[in-house]
Amino acid sequence: MVSYAEERSANIERNKLILKEIGMEKLKPATEPKEKRKKKKTPRNKNANNKRKMTNFEVPGGRDPQAVEQPPTKTARVDSEVSEVPGESRRRSSRIASLPAGAVVHAERRRGTPLPMSVKTIVPSASGAAKRQRRYDPKTYGAIPGIEVGSWWASREECSNDSIHAPWVGGISPGPHGAYSVALSGGYDDDVDAGYAFTYTGAGGRDLKGTKAAPKNLRTAEQSYDQSFDHNHNKALKRSVETGKPVRVIRGFKLRSPYGPSEGYRYDGLYTVERHWQEKGLNKGGFLVCKFAFKRLPGQPDIPVRGGEDEEPEFPSGDEESDAEGVDTSDD
DNA sequence: GGGCCCGCAGGG
DNA sequence: CCCTGCGGGCCC
What we know:
The longest helix has 18 residues, at about 5-20. The chain has a domain at about 150-300: SRA-YDG (PUA domain-like, Roll). Strands 1, 2, 3, 4, 5, 6, 7 and 8 form an eight-stranded mixed sheet that branches.
């Protein structure tokens, strides 16, 4: 029988081929910007709230943000001076590693704290927009005004608040004419992330409730049955292929790829879903999974790659050879 | 590190 | 109301 590693490489190779087929080569810049470590420029500012968002890379030489409806740079919401997050060098791998020192999580949102309910009701937000104080409807195709490509958040909750990706947990935010957004967090071991294109695994096929005897109430779990395009989320991504609607993409720190941020979540702009198919997933049982191939729209700022200084690129950033990269368990 | 258990946004 | 989901705090 085939080992997990072998099966994984095989899947990865197949997925890489698909990415080549959809023509992502041209999108990848000759030289890729390094992820900017969030240095601790500003002293501290321990006033909570500065954990808002920040753009992670300033593009060398002004590119023209034309091609893709670039939202008006409107840094609202950061009411306080956008102090640099003193996140310094944290090694990825820990959870949401460092909410930078001063970035205290709002007490109301903490888990054990008592008044989460009242938080929602605060800020009626006249326009009856949403319960949260969202400025824009996340159920929008394309860019969210005011959120630049490269913006960064410490948690999924914050991404949701800024309407970039509404679900707190789910990777896919479905809509009638396609998905609005997806989150790459490395949930599936055989997905390939080449930055300017990537493969993505659909939702479903998991038993989140556990067994009758041992109920689990989980949020994620191993595959235990086939995924299908009947699942609303997968159906939405399939629609994206048909309609060509752009999908917002965020990458999370758990993503094992040079393009994954070392901490938190980063908005990497708009992509189109080029293909959808089903294949045997990397799971015990060989259950089918729904797969999708995404390609980035041109004209957006380059994606920063990890490996600023104290981090060594674990993969040769691209695909190229069939480098046996991930096959190992290169710890981490 | 792993296991638990949970809040929440969204859709049905 | 019910169920789902590439989180995440907490405890061990």
